[in-house]
Amino acid sequence: MDKVMVELKNVSLNYHTVNGETEAIKNVSFNVHEGEFVGVIGPSGCGKSTLLSIIAGLLKPSGGSVKVNGEVGYMLQRDHLFEWRNIMQNVLLGLEIQNAVNDDSIRHVEGLLDRYGLAEFKYHYPNQISGGMRQRAALIRTLALNPDIMLLDEAFSALDYQTRLAISDEVWSILKNVKKTAIIVTHDISEAIAMCDRIVVLSNRPAVVKSIHEIHLTCDTPSPIGCRKAPEFREYFNEIWKELDVHV
Amino acid sequence: MYDTTSNMSKEHMEFLKKVKRKEIAIRTTQVIILIAFFALWEIAGRLKLIDPFLFSQPSRMLKTIINLSKDGSLFTHIWVTLSETLIGFALGTIIGIAIAIMLWWSSFASKVAEPYLIVLNSLPKIALGPIFIVWMGNGEAPIITMGLAISLIVTIISLETGFMQVDEDKIKLLKTFGATKYQILTKCILPASIPTIMSAIKINMGLSWVGVITGEFLVSKAGLGYLIVYGGQIFKLDIVMSSVLILSVLAALMYVLLVYIEKKIIKWQ
């Protein structure tokens, strides 16, 4: 078995407000192995993002244990490029915070910009480039820190559908190429099936693990868009859809 | 982004011409209104439709300004008011930003300060005038303090609100990088708030003029506010009107300067 990168054991989290206590997450346990893409899916407001915040160390769980084996990189819902910084200054932000800007890291970042087609937009400001490019810049900003584990928190949900398909495909290839481990939080069932090796389905609040699905798709071109054509795709979709138990 | 010089379609050239024409029409009308206003004022005075003794007259104002400039006293008055305003404005801005940062930093301090800020904000600051005069004498100090008092509280409130409105997710992003509170302030809160700070500064500038002129009304030996009160007391409306005119020109110049600086600073928009 591969190295375990993230280990969640009976993790629970309660929110406290003056009006009372809310159980957000209850006894969630699962592991993520090296190189694996794990999707976390569940009804909206069930605490998926909270779970990522716990893994990233931004929130302390009320109970249970979290073991993270390596550096964590976080990608948020929108690109959150700082509009007063140009692309180069934006992608260097994380390194700047960690006082790690030096010749080596700059070379690394320039290599990334070059590889992902942003080299000539280095000195552009975020509002001068397209949504797809902005998302790529945000990815480079995270990759600049060389994280071992990527946490994607609805990272594509602010994009329009076409861009979203293209970018998730692109991000997937980039991350697979550099052999990152990823935890992908999404509410999009198809996206989860197309991108992930395993899908954890969470229940309504308080979130517990409802089921875990191993995804095996037979497809010629191993990419999220290519794999959407796989014959098993629909089965997985129907299965997960039923489990999500959506009532409008 | 687009090449606007060559390969322009005829339709686009027509469009640009139309935009340009409209712009020229607006400017011309503005200038005509200004000239017409002074011309009608002058003519109405000459034809005795209005009493120049009460309403003054552009030609008499010009004469007054020339007379006051001859002995240099006008420049002293302008300088006194301008320097008082700039000092009050600078103090209001700097102290305001500093306090707003403190309130952002400590939510405890912010909560504690809230009712005091609300009361101080609603209080007509001119009521404090006599107190400042008793405490600081009749020099420039109470006037500058008046300018400061009028602008400070508004600055603090608007900046703190601006700081609090910075996108939570931007802060979360910095936290995922392990940023300290100081880094969150310098890398995100302050730069993200530059538009808020600039608009607070513009309001501040206007309020400082109000504060200083009010202060000069209450106690002063020089300044445009002094000239206005003095002119009113001796029934020399020429002096009053000239001073008001100079004051509005100065205030406008100051504002234009600030807009220019703003454009220089916010280059990403």
TrEMBL record, chain A:
Entry keyword ATP-binding: yes
CDD domains noted in UniProt: ABC_NrtD_SsuB_transporters (cd03293)
Record-linked InterPro entries: AAA+_ATPase, ABC_transporter-like_ATP-bd, ABC_transporter-like_CS, ABC_transporter_ATP-bind, P-loop_NTPase
ABC transporter domain: residues covered: 6-229
PROSITE patterns attached to this UniProt entry: ABC_TRANSPORTER_1 (PS00211), ABC_TRANSPORTER_2 (PS50893)
Keywords of the record: ATP-binding, Nucleotide-binding, Transport
Pfam families listed in its UniProt record: ABC_tran (PF00005)
Keyword Transport: yes
GO molecular function: ATP binding
Protein name, entry field: NitT/TauT family transport system ATP-binding protein
